[in-house]
């Protein structure tokens, strides 16, 4: 049956036109019930023994997704109109409900009501879209009742009073979520329900958790219309809230409108905003701006300070809690940082949080309901108030809680229990917490995804070799150099010399002699796109995951292991498919020409960085592979020198390496990760390949190429580095990346670790490199500041990064090997993909760091240690130190809680020192101090590595 439907569409010029589309209606869409006598039941998703089938509306899916994910809820029909609404309103929830529907173990059925002849509803004049969708849901529920002929009860689940009333009038059985859950006689499921914010009023009797605490009242958030107007007029400033991980009452909002970070200090000024929220900020009067030196490190018990909830101009705020204000005539206004208060939330960043419960000191509620405070492991998150019927069972557990609301008259946000992770302190439990807190998908790959994999065992066939665009390079001496134990090998190298040319590629072949005028270098990258096709479940899953995640003790793959460790991995002594970059280079590493080809290779060796370095260092070894390594290293050094001469920065980071017990998975040793020449050699050719490919794809597709940019840091971002440099007698020139690179090269002292510390501090002043669609920015904005190159992308790790998969498709299309997938015609979708890649990439980094912190705690739990540390940041009540031996950073307090605000210490901002008032003692930036490291637990279930001065 054909039905014509009008769709409004906005043109580029801003006009609204109405498009007529054909809408096909069918009568052969299956209901999904195995006992149905009308439909084909071969693909049935509902239970054979179902007594009740649930039809859920959009708001139930949006608000009660935690309940729907519980295995106790089954035999659910999710209508296509509901899925579409959820997708438009909350993509995260949409992905979660799709995952349930795609899970063969769950009894969820998707019914395409919008395409069934009996359930499609036409638009009615004067009816809102929301009312039309509610009517469509009721029509589908009614159809199920008639279609199944009373074999089971069909129940519409809705919390919408009007929708429920109309359903009852139309003879449809309807219940609220809560009434249905109560009928299941599962009190634990009631904990999963999201409570409407209006219920906060009923809880006011529990607001004052301790009699000594005053009640907190927050400012009302401005409506979006007023926020939009204020942003336009420059009254308000928009940005993302970033809460200080060491002081949850100090936060920052990066504002492009004023070109600086705005400090938000105190819970009152944060005004119920969470870390990661997009907020609107109003600047405080300049006489309330704060000096950098007066900011302090919060104590572990800081959350119990009533002062932190007060406005910064309150008369009874203790000086130790709120930074000193800048007073005209006494302090140079230039030394003050802009401060503000949040007036509205533009976009919430609420998600699930991991932590434990702190029982409330009050009698339990009615019906076995207990009130409790949830304490997140992440100190940046405020305590969350929940109700639970299983308090005793949860007190020694790590649990997940979601936030429902935060009433302006409530000290704490309200939320609900989601699920239990495991016992507090258990390593597997705490590792799971790391993944959840960073939104890492560690679920097993679905059957639909695994069905996309090639049959195993897989090998190169004659058909692969007969494809015109794939070159047979199996005769070349190709090898890989990777971290120890690497199984997902996505790059290999080869470099060889002829009388007149060198070949270099991502496979590299190297046999360079002084008589040669040039060489060929090859870089080989695993041909992942030969197995991952656009639009398949495998591709969709990789797109969502975005990247593989590397924890201390395990790896969370972006692609299934048969691909990452077998089919695509460029292992030694097996034939594999690759995508090659082949350079013709002079002996001085100048690139004469570049070409690209798909290839078949057979790696001769899979070396670790340590093994490759040992070969290069051992003068007795003269075998072909070792000779190739030395020749490649010679070229890489020249390439690196030329890159640095262009202005590329050589920065440093505190990477930590653990030695893990293979049986217990506990850390046996910890230390700084050592970078060798072998690492730098591989890095140089990877960088060169990424630049070459960026140039190639942008030339062919100037509007839809996926590139990677690193924005130039502002003077304000570099200010902390400049203050430290000035305090130790350095004059850093930050006018360009070249000037900064030269300055860092000259930043040397008697201390061999001094230069690395300065480079680590420089790294922390940089913004994050990000993916973007070339059509979204102008060419001057494409620049990668850190690498000092106008163009850059990621091509060299398609096994681990989805960005590289996209770039492989662009490169193949630019060479005429394959057609460009349709997604590249949709700029908005490309931008959305880039945004997700940036989000996933950052989360993977944060998860890796959190895993290091967890294993650091495990390692030092039974190993109190005295060691040397360097001061890297001064605060009014102490300083932050960096421990070179272990790559650890943390706060050191100079005052106890009782001494705070006593004025015993003061900060000399110019000299970057903290001094005793009587002048008897001082500590300066980058000074070496001796510290004691020990794991303590100042708050229940929140262990931390405490650093104290010896």
Write up this protein.
It is built from 24 helices and 39 strands. It starts with a strand and ends with a strand. Strands 20, 21, 22, 23, 26 and 27 form a six-stranded mixed β-sheet that branches. Strands 5-4-3-6-7 form a five-stranded parallel β-sheet, sandwiched between helices. It is globular and about 85 Å long. Among the domains are: 2-190, 5'-nuclease (Rossmann fold, 3-Layer(aba) Sandwich); 234-347, OB fold (Dihydrolipoamide Acetyltransferase, E2P), CATH 2.40.50; 864-949, OB fold (Dihydrolipoamide Acetyltransferase, E2P), CATH 2.40.50.140. With 950 residues, the protein is of the alpha+beta class. A hairpin with a 2-residue loop joins strand 8 and strand 9 (247-255). Its cofactor is Mg(2+). GO terms for molecular function: 3'-5'-RNA exonuclease activity; endonuclease activity; RNA binding. Keywords: Exonuclease, Exosome, Hydrolase, Magnesium, Nuclease, Nucleus, RNA-binding, rRNA processing. Residues 470-817 form the RNB domain. It comes from Cicer arietinum (Chickpea).
Keywords for this entry:
950 residues, alpha+beta, Rossmann fold, OB fold (Dihydrolipoamide Acetyltransferase, E2P), 6-stranded mixed beta sheet, 5-stranded parallel beta sheet, rRNA processing, RNR_Ribonuclease, RNA-binding, endonuclease activity, exosome
């Amino acid at each position: 049956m054909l039905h014509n439907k009008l769709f409004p569409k906005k043109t580029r010029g801003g006009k609204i036109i109405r498009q007529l589309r054909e809408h096909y209606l069918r009568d052969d869409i299956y209901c999904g019930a195995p006992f149905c006598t009308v439909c084909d039941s071969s693909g049935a998703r509902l239970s054979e023994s179902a007594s009740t089938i649930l039809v859920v509306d959009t708001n139930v899916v949006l608000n009660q997704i935690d309940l729907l994910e519980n295995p106790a809820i089954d035999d659910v029909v999710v209508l296509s109109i509901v899925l579409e609404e959820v997708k438009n309103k909350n993509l995260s929830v949409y992905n979660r409900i799709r995952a349930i529907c795609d899970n063969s173990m769950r009894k969820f059925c998707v019914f395409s009501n919008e395409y069934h002849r009996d359930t499609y509803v036409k638009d009615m004049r004067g009816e809102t879209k929301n009312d039309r969708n509610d009517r469509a849901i009721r029509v589908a529920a009614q159809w199920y009742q008639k279609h199944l002929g009373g074999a089971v009860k069909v129940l519409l689940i809705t919390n919408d009073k009007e929708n429920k009333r109309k359903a009852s009038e139309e003879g449809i059985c309807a219940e609220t979520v809560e009434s249905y859950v109560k009928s299941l006689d599962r009190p634990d499921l009631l904990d999963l329900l999201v409570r409407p914010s209006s219920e906060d009023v009923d809880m006011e009797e529990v607001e004052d958790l301790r009699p000594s605490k005053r009640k907190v009242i927050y400012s009302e958030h401005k409506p979006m219309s007023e926020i939009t107007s204020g942003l336009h007029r420059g009254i308000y400033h928009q940005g993302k809230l970033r809460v200080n991980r060491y002081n949850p009452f100090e936060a920052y909002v990066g504002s492009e409108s004023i070109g600086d970070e705005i400090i938000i200090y105190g819970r009152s000024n944060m005004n119920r905003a969470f870390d990661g929220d997009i907020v609107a900020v109003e600047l405080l009067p300049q006489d309330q701006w704060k000096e950098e030196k007066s900011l302090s490190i919060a104590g572990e018990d800081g959350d119990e300070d009533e002062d932190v909830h007060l406005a910064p101009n309150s008369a009874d705020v203790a000086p130790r809690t709120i930074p000193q204000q800048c007073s005209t005539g006494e302090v140079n206004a230039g030394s003050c940082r802009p401060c503000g208060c949040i007036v509205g939330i533009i976009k919430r960043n609420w998600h699930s949080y991991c932590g434990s419960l702190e029982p409330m000191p009050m009698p339990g509620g009615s019906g076995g309901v207990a009130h409790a405070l949830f304490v997140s492991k992440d100190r940046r998150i405020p305590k969350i108030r929940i109700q639970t019927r299983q308090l005793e069972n949860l007190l020694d557990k790590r649990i997940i809680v979601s936030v429902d609301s935060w009433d302006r008259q409530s000290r704490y946000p309200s939320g609900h229990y989601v699920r239990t992770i495991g016992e507090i302190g258990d390593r597997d439990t705490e590792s799971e917490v790391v993944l959840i807190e960073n939104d890492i998908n560690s679920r097993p790959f679905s059957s639909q995804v695994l069905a996309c994999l090639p049959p195993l065992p897989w090998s190169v066939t004659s058909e692969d070799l007969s494809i015109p665009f794939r070159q047979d390079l199996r005769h070349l001496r190709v090898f890989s150099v990777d971290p120890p134990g690497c199984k997902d090998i996505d790059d290999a190298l080869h470099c060889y010399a002829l009388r007149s040319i060198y070949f270099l590629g991502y496979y590299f072949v190297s046999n360079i002699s002084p008589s040669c005028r040039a060489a060929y270098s090859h870089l080989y990258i695993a041909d992942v796109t030969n197995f991952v096709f656009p639009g398949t479940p495998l591709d969709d899953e990789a797109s969502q995951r975005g990247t593989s995640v590397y924890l201390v003790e395990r790896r969370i793959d972006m692609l299934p292991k048969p691909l990452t460790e077998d089919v695509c991995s460029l292992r030694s002594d097996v034939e594999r498919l690759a995508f090659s970059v082949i350079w013709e280079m002079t002996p001085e590493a100048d690139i004469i020409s570049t070409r690209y080809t798909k290839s078949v290779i057979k790696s001769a060796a899979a070396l670790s960085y340590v093994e490759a370095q040992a070969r290069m260092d051992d003068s007795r070894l003269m075998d072909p592979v070792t000779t190739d390594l030395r020749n490649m290293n010679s070229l890489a050094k020249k390439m690196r020198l030329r890159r640095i001469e262009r202005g590329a920065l050589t920065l440093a980071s505190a990477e930590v390496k653990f030695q893990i017990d293979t049986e217990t998975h506990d850390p046996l040793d910890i230390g700084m990760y050592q970078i060798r020449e072998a690492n730098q050699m591989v890095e140089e050719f990877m960088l060169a390949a990424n630049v070459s490919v960026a140039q190639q794809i942008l030339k062919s597709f100037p509007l839809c190429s996926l590139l990677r940019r690193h924005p130039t840091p502002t003077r304000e971002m570099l200010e902390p580095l400049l203050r430290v440099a000035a305090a130790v007698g350095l004059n850093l020139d930050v006018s360009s990346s070249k000037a900064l690179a030269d300055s860092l090269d000259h930043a040397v002292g008697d201390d061999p670790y001094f230069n690395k510390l300065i480079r680590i501090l420089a790294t922390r002043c940089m913004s994050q490199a990000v993916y973007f669609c070339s059509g979204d920015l102008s060419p001057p904005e494409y620049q990668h500041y850190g690498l000092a190159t106008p163009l850059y992308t990621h091509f060299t790790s398609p096994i681990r990064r989805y960005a590289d998969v996209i770039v492989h498709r662009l490169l193949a299309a630019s060479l005429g090997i394959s057609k460009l997938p349709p997604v590249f015609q949709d700029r908005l979708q490309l931008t959305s993909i880039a945004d997700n890649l940036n989000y996933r990439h950052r989360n993977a980094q944060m998860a890796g760091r959190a895993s290091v912190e967890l294993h650091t705690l495990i390692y030092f739990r039974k190993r109190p240690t005295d060691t040397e540390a360097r001061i890297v940041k001064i605060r009014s009540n102490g300083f932050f130190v960096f421990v070179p031996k272990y790559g650890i950073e943390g706060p050191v307090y100079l005052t106890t809680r009782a001494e705070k605000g006593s004025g015993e210490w003061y900060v000399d901002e110019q000299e970057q020192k903290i001094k005793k008032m009587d002048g008897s003692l001082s500590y300066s930036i980058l000074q070496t101090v001796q510290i004691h490291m020990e794991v303590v637990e100042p708050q229940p279930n929140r262990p931390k590595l405490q650093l104290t001065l010896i």
